[in-house]
């Protein structure tokens, strides 16, 4: 299985954030979670990238905004 750097910027009480994290866990993908609600520095990182919504998932530097299963599968090279 190829190596992926996966970073999930999330917010507290965000159902789409939970969906992204559940999807990654179910598919055995390791990821780093950065909660922008709790840690201001993560919110500031997103702002610098002109991203104002969560979940914002970066897979090897490519952004997936929201919960887009098809796009996540493609970037993670998972079979449909």
Structure commentary:
With 80 residues, the chain is α+β, with helices and mostly antiparallel strands. It has a single domain (6-75), classed as Glutaredoxin (3-Layer(aba) Sandwich), CATH 3.40.30. Helices cover 35% and strands 21% of the residues. The protein is built from 3 helices and 4 strands, in the order βαβαββα. It has helices at 15-26, 40-48, 69-75, and strands at 6-10, 32-35, 56-59, 62-65. The chain has a 4-stranded mixed beta sheet with strand order 2-1-3-4, with helices on both faces. The protein is globular and about 35 Å long. The mean pLDDT is 96.
SSE layout and pairing:
Blueprint: E1 6-10, H1 15-26, E2 32-35, H2 40-48, E3 56-59, E4 62-65, H3 69-75
CATH superfamily: Glutaredoxin
Given the helix and strand composition, which structural class is it?
Answer: alpha+beta
For this structure, the CATH topology is Glutaredoxin
Q: Within the largest sheet, what's the order of strands? A: 2-1-3-4
Distance between the termini: 16 Å
Order of helices and strands: EHEHEEH
* Helix proportion: 25-40%
Number of helices: 3
Q: What Rg is obtained from the alpha carbons, in whole angstroms?
A: 12 Å
Query: How many strand segments?
Result: 4
Domain unit count: 1
* Top CATH class: Alpha Beta
């Amino acid at each position: 299985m190829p190596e992926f750097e996966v970073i999930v910027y999330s917010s507290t009480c965000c159902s789409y954030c939970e969906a992204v994290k559940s999807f990654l866990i179910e598919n055995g993908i390791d990821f780093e979670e950065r909660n922008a609600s709790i840690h201001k520095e993560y919110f500031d990182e997103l702002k610098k990238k002109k991203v104002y919504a969560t979940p914002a998932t970066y897979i090897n530097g490519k952004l997936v905004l929201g919960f887009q299963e098809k796009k996540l599968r493609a970037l993670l090279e998972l079979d449909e």
